[in-house]
Design goal:
2 strands; 245 residues; 6 helices
Length: 245
């Protein structure tokens, strides 16, 4: 979710004024000297190209939208990809600013807030579309469970987003985050990553059952390509949160 900010500790101030709005600061970076950060920057640039291709595919190829009456999939594919593209684009910009050691003001964290909003909506939409597609091939009970699971994921995501916004807002206003916002974000992020991993395992089992019950091309693609990708993504999220916290 939100990137970790180094140094500074917790702010003990209680001022509500935007004292640090025009103060200059530097985003985390290594002046392009750290191979890992440079590689991540390159991967994000490649991801931007892939996401552009995905947006083109979702608008031009009807086989992606197997059931034209499903409004979630019809609009969700493109919306999720667009929001993920915008989030990744902002991440690339922030990474470039940090690596180039460009001086910015604390108002730059408004951009981080926007990035988090895009990322949250895109992440939940992607999981919701995958869950809905798989559940439709299994049965009504699975659809109800998947719907409840997605609703709970939305709830956790909104909580994490709220703490993230509070965190960045405090950086803008006070130059540092309060203990409550910081710890709330950390713990809610761990819960989010853990739940996403568990829900992905449920979808894996559901995908196997869907293929056995109805051997459609959509179910097979979900099992072979989409579900493993989602599993890897959720596992990386869980490992990242555990490592950072």
């Amino acid at each position: 979710m939100a990137p970790r900010r180094g140094g500074g500790g917790y702010s003990s101030g209680s001022s509500s004024s935007c004292y640090y709005c025009t103060e200059t600061t530097y985003l985390p970076g290594y002046n392009w000297q750290y191979p890992t950060s440079t590689a991540l920057f390159a991967l994000n640039v490649i991801l931007l190209i892939v996401l552009i291709a995905c947006m083109v595919l979702t608008r031009r190829f009807k086989w992606i939208r197997e059931r034209g009456t499903d409004k979630l999939r019809n609009s969700g594919y493109f919306t999720a990809t667009l929001f993920m593209f915008l989030s990744t684009l902002l991440q690339v910009i922030f990474s470039a600013l940090g690596e180039s050691e460009v001086a910015v003001t604390y108002l730059v964290y408004i951009g981080y807030i926007i990035k988090e909003i895009f990322w949250t909506i895109a992440s939940v939409l992607i999981v919701a579309i995958i869950a809905r597609t798989i559940a439709e091939d299994v049965g009504a009970l699975s659809q109800k469970i998947a719907t409840f699971g997605i609703a709970f994921l939305w709830t956790i995501s909104i909580i994490v987003l709220g703490f993230s916004i509070a965190l960045y807002a405090e950086y803008i206003a006070m130059g540092g985050a309060e203990y409550i916002a910081t710890m709330g974000y950390i713990y809610s992020s761990i819960i989010w990553a853990s739940y996403l991993f568990a829900f992905t395992l449920f979808l894996c089992g559901l995908a196997v059952f869907a293929v056995l019950k109805r051997r459609s091309m959509g179910s097979l693609l979900m099992l072979i390509i989409v579900i493993p990708s989602l599993f890897l993504k959720s596992l990386l999220e869980l490992v990242t949160e555990a490592n950072n916290n």
